[in-house]
Amino acid sequence: MNRCWPRGRYIHLRHRIFAAIVVSIIVTAGCVVLATRLLGSQEFQSDIANAQHFVGGRFADVWDDPMRRQRMVTEIESSFGVSLLLRDSTARLIYGDASRCGRPDFQFDVPGPPGSQNDKGKVALCFNHTPRHGMPVAIGLIVGALILWGFSGKIARRLARPIDELLRVAREIGEGNLAARMRLRRHHRDEVGEIAEAVNDMAVRIERQLSGQRELLAAVSHEIRTPLARLRVLVELERTKPQDPRRLDAIEAELVEIDSLVGQLLAQSKLDFSAVDRRRLCVAEVASTALARANLPQQLLNDKSDGACALVDPSLIARALANLVDNAQGHGQGLTELAITLEQNWVVLAVNDRGPGITSDVFPRLFKPFERSGEKAGLGLGLALVERIAQAHGGSAFALPRDEGGASVGFRIACES
Question: What residues make up the domain containing 86?
Answer without folding.
Answer: 13-129
